[in-house]
Amino acid sequence: MVFPSLAEAANPTVDSISHAPAGNPPAGTVTFTATASDADGDLQKVTIYVDENNDGDYADPGEQTVCTTPPSPCSVTRTYVAGQFIKYYAGARDVAGNLEFSAIPAGTFTLGPPLLPAPNLLSPTNNFTVLTTTPALVWGAVPGAVNYMPNISAIWSPAGGSGGATSIVVPAGILSPGGTYTWNVRACSDVACFAIHPWSVSWTFKVSAGGIDSLTHSPDPVFETTPTVTFTATASAVAPATIQNIRIQVDINDDGGAPEFTFNCPVSPCTGTAGPFAPGIPVSYDAQLTDSLGNLSPVVSNSFGVLSVGGNITIGAISPTSAIEGSVRTFTAPVSVAGGNPGVTSCEFRGTSGLLGPMSLSTIPCTNCTTSINYTFPSDGSFVVWARCTNGVETQNGLGVTINVADVGGGPTTVPIGPIAFPNPLGATSFTDLVKNIIDFLFTMAVIVAPVLLVIAGVIFMTAAGDPSRVSTARRMLLWTVIGFGIILISKGLVEVLRAILGI
């Protein structure tokens, strides 16, 4: 509020003094703010006077607040309890000592009870669709509240609140079918709900427009072998109207003529069965609601085609048709499905020995794609393989092909051709084979060398002519030849005996 000065223009002027929250605030903090001005620009200080115990002198400790830097605006915040009566005013002084005051008191108020917490909303829940234009709003109780003030989209708040109840029914004429609204509520510490307490969060709800809510058929898709198809419609009516009839009509061939099947239900959901249907035949169906007031809802329509079973999946031949033993190779095959039928969802890599592994699809479901697998043949040879695929309705085998797998080594060791043919003793795959090959090698050499040594020893002996040294040489050669050949022969026999005993 503004208080014009009664002194000359050079005197200071108290322009305003107020408190916040305004009116009779709830118990808690209150802020006082005063503004002042001086035509000479020499305003020195502004003082806020607050009588907190209603004794009229404004001079008790803490009841005066002085502002000098800057003097205006001047603010002070105090904390009060419920029921406390407060009076206040402001004064302004310039450098020359001129002093002016606002009205005394400039304002009064009585502290109300503390702020109440916001209620918790319960129903209708956020984004819920109600089936009536007169729904009940429900919220949780707040301790200390004596009344509640609900609000709907700022278009409706009941005079006098809810009367202390934690629910209220929205009267007719406020909401409209198909409309979307927000609602919230605040608790009140007084019956008239004059004291301002915080609002709850806002939730949104929609009033149903009524009619057919959903229309479906099952199973889906429908095949020529499907014995029956179930048609289902759900509907709702907006109160005060109720459901009188839900009608489902089925039109075979989708020719727009009289429906071949009609189902009527007094409640929701409404179901009916029909079938089987011939392949390639389009089937359309629709539903409509009639409520108790005679209102007809818009017609909701749907349709499906009847699919053939068998021979709809085509799988090409596996490629490539060659591989290397022990090496990973990618094998692929083209897959296609006749139009309108379910796409392939899985494939297998198969051979005459059975399942070799699952195959992947470039797209799922696949109507025109490629199936593939990374596979390693563990041995060489020729193998017949093919792809097998399914779409959940039928399973087909692709064309079988022969995969030629090349050998990369590791077979029997070949014996070199030459004047003396014997195996390389290192051409072994285990320690026992290595020992055996070495003994065999030494035995082969002994068989070749021993006769030669015997012949040489005989020649030396026969030509010694009684020479003791030559006879001794021939005797030693003969002896060591026999001993060496015997050792090799015994070793070979011992190795064979041990291999037979140990099974290695």
CATH architecture descriptor of the largest domain: Sandwich
Radius of gyration: 53 Å
Uncertain residue ranges: 1-8, 411-422
CATH class category of the largest domain: Mainly Beta
* CATH T-level topology of the largest domain: Immunoglobulin-like
Number of strands: 32
Helix content: 10-25%
Number of separate domains = 5
Main sheet attributes: strand count, strand direction, barrel closure: 9 strands, mixed
Q: What's the CATH H-level homologous superfamily of the largest domain? A: Immunoglobulins
Fraction of residues in β-strands: 35-45%
Average residue-wise pLDDT: 85
Note down, in words, how this protein is organized:
- With 504 residues, the chain is mainly β.
- It folds into 5 domains: 12-110, Sandwich (Immunoglobulin-like); 121-207, Immunoglobulin-like (Sandwich), CATH 2.60.40; 212-307, Immunoglobulins (Immunoglobulin-like, Sandwich), CATH 2.60.40.10; 313-406, Immunoglobulin-like (Sandwich); 431-502.
- The protein contains 2 helices and 32 strands.
- The chain has helices spanning 431-462, 468-502; strands at residues 12-20, 28-38, 43-51, 64-67, 74-80, 85-94, 99-101, 107-110, 121-123, 128-130, 136-139, 147-152, 167-169, 180-188, 203-207, 211-218, 222-223, 229-236, 243-252, 261-265, 270-274, 282-291, 300-307, 313-315, 322-324, 328-337, 346-351, 354-361, 368-376, 381-390, 395-397, 401-406.
- Strands 24, 25, 26, 27, 28, 29, 30, 31 and 32 form a 9-stranded mixed beta sheet that branches. Strands 3, 4, 6, 7 and 8 form a 5-stranded antiparallel beta sheet that branches.
- A hairpin with a 4-residue loop joins strand 6 (85-94) and strand 7 (99-101).
- Helix 1 (431-462) packs antiparallel against helix 2.
- It starts with 11 loop residues before the first strand and ends with a helix.
- Mean pLDDT is 85; it is low at 1-8 and 411-422.
- InterPro entries: Ig-like_fold, T4SS_pilin.
- It holds the Pfam family T4SS_pilin.
- The chain crosses the membrane at residues 441-465, 477-495.
- Keywords: Membrane, Transmembrane, Transmembrane helix.
